């Protein structure tokens, strides 16, 4: 059987209509469909087959992300904001000397804390800024993590994950495996039923949810504390793609 060239994209819910190709486990007599479908009518003696298949590839995460929270409290909003800006400035200055680092300043907000006399906490303004640092080499980022903690920035998250580029590459490979599995299942189903594949009506490619990041043990102490074994990820992550297709089977011969 001949399969026509297929271009896939690493995105959720890609739908491709393919005439003359292959693809569950559900069979539908297709004779009655010719009355309701004016496009590509199904022959009266044909059978419709719905098929799903999947493909999975594994890879080590290639991106380490550290998320910090800069927080300051003061009697005025302006003073709290100035202190937070100074902390963020330390992150910017420190990361400027490290190669291969990406810095993103994220959520920022200021609010008034009314305090609690019962806890001897007086009213204050609170300012917070979230900062995310990303690198492909743990040896570059981890020393900076300790330095920033010593500068009174709170480390809220530290984990390995797949970069966008790596995930796109793995998704394409998983889609290829899923399509190959679909073709094999389609041929096996047709052979068992003493039929042949006449055409594929539709093919839908879907990639599953983003793999979960791999959290590292949080370091609550100062910069002098070592983080053994943290320079590289220790596990693998799966990227899975699923293909769903509807194809038409016809009697053999």
Automatic annotation (TrEMBL):
<dbReference type="InterPro" id="IPR052022">
    <property type="entry name" value="26kDa_periplasmic_antigen"/>
</dbReference>
<keyword id="KW-0732">Signal</keyword>
<protein>
    <recommendedName>
        <fullName>Outer membrane protein</fullName>
    </recommendedName>
</protein>
<feature type="signal peptide">
    <location>
        <begin position="1"/>
        <end position="29"/>
    </location>
</feature>
<dbReference type="Pfam" id="PF04402">
    <property type="entry name" value="SIMPL"/>
</dbReference>
<dbReference type="InterPro" id="IPR007497">
    <property type="entry name" value="SIMPL/DUF541"/>
</dbReference>
<dbReference type="GO" id="GO:0006974">
    <property type="term" value="P:DNA damage response"/>
</dbReference>
């Amino acid at each position: 059987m001949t399969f026509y060239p297929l271009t896939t994209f690493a995105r959720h819910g890609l739908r491709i209509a393919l005439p003359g190709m292959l693809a569950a486990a559900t069979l539908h007599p297709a004779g009655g469909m010719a009355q309701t479908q004016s496009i590509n009518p199904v022959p009266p003696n044909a059978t419709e087959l719905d098929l799903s298949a999947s493909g999975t590839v594994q890879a080590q995460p290639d991106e380490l992300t550290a998320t910090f929270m800069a927080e300051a409290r003061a009697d005025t909003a302006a003073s709290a904001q100035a202190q937070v800006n100074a902390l963020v400035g330390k992150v910017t200055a420190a990361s400027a000397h490290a190669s291969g680092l990406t810095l993103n300043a994220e959520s920022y907000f200021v609010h008034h804390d009314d305090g609690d006399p019962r806890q001897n906490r007086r009213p204050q303004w609170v300012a917070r800024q979230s900062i995310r640092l990303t690198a492909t080499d743990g040896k570059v980022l981890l020393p900076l993590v300790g330095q920033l903690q010593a500068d009174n920035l709170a480390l809220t998250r530290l984990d390995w994950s797949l970069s966008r580029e790596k995930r796109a590459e793995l998704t394409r490979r998983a889609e290829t495996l899923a399509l190959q599995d679909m073709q094999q299942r389609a041929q096996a189903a047709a052979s068992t039923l003493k039929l042949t594949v006449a055409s594929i009506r539709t093919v839908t490619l879907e990639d599953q949810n983003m793999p979960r990041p791999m959290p590292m043990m949080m370091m609550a102490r100062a910069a002098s504390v070592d983080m053994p074994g943290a320079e590289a990820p220790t596990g693998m992550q799966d990227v899975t793609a699923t293909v769903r297709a509807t194809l038409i089977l016809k009697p053999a011969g």
